[in-house]
Amino acid sequence: MANEFSLEIKNVTKHFGTFTAVDDVTVSIRQGEFFSLLGPSGCGKTTLLRMIAGFEVPDQGRILLNGEEITHLPPNRRKVNTIFQNYALFPHLTVRENIGYGLKVAGTDRTTLRSEVERMLDLIQMEDHADKKPAQISGGQKQRVAIARALINKPQVLLLDEPLAALDLKLRQRMLIELDNIHDEVGITFVYVTHDQGEAMSLSDTIAVMNHGKIEQLGKPGEIYEAPRSSFVAAFIGDTNFFEGNVISVIDPEYSRMKIDGLGEVTVFNDKHIQQGSPVHLSVRPEKFQLGRDRPEDPAARLNCFEGVVEDVVYLGSHTRYWIKVGEYRVAVMKQHARFLLDEKPVRWKDRLWLWWHADDGFMLEQYHEADEELLSVPDTES
């Protein structure tokens, strides 16, 4: 019976001197999954990938590939291949020769080698460039060649370490689609390291958000975005607004009343069962707010409703970004242009508006670590 998990990481820890790069990480990755390790620089994601590849050895813990322990196996004895940011192609070899290099070194017969190389050229749609050298092809094409060279050896797991970081924005967006298509075509497990939450969200079946050597949250992209478990995750995955305060009462098992410092009382979804009196953050995404010139009539909307003054308006084509001064907070609000009515009275600087959100659209979270404080704000410009 085939093992359910392609890769299992059990209580893995890695120190560099007094610094703990990976701290007691346990995670299981299913067969054929596109799994992303996401986090800021220094969070431990690349160190964890290097231990899976065999370039680093854990100080504690075990790594299993298809149920077999590989913790102390050298890299060349593991059925994994790694793709790095810099492609690492041989400049003196053609595209065809680069792709077939691993099989040639392994002594594969000429007929099989030629057949496998042609299959890979077709997969990455590089047949017309097969006899070119790396210097004669684009960055995106080099990345495709690097992927083909790794896949031709039929690894059980493909490791990708920031593979798109060196590409410009448009090329990176195109390569995201190509990577997704290649994964669907070959069906093996991909483990993808990135600091770019957009890449992870668009590609992954499962994301592990890492911080200070630990996994802060593990789940599907939608789960992590819509229901973050910590202030760090809420801030790192997309934009959010943070309000600080305390739980003043528990209404029922799912909802609580919270007093926001410098603003007032709100009703909040309390899925984490935070107790009365606890200091908390409230996270509300910019797209979750409603805006209106009049106070809403719906009693449910009035639960979390405040008047504010428009401080900035930025039109961005598909949506408009507003910054509203509400109490002591500068709140970021995003309005999608599903329909944009030219005869609608535009919102302008210094307008007074009502802002409200549904109780289900905000999440109470624990207070953050001081080291993460710089993440807990919404930027004033689009990145």
What does it look like?
By secondary structure, the protein is α+β, with helices and mostly antiparallel strands. The protein has 2 domains: 5-226, Rossmann fold (3-Layer(aba) Sandwich); 231-375, RNA polymerase II/Efflux pump adaptor protein, barrel-sandwich hybrid domain (OB fold (Dihydrolipoamide Acetyltransferase, E2P), Beta Barrel), CATH 2.40.50.100. Helix content is 23%, strand content 34%. It has helices spanning 45-53, 95-105, 110-123, 139-151, 169-186, 197-203, 221-226, 231-236, 299-302; strands at 5-16, 19-30, 34-38, 60-65, 68-69, 80-83, 157-161, 189-194, 206-211, 214-219, 241-250, 255-260, 264-269, 279-284, 290-292, 305-315, 319-326, 329-336, 352-356, 362-365. A hairpin with a 2-residue loop joins strand 4 and strand 5 (68-69).
Short description:
By secondary structure, the chain is of the alpha+beta class. The chain folds into 2 domains: 5-226, P-loop containing nucleotide triphosphate hydrolases (Rossmann fold); 231-375, RNA polymerase II/Efflux pump adaptor protein, barrel-sandwich hybrid domain (OB fold (Dihydrolipoamide Acetyltransferase, E2P), Beta Barrel).
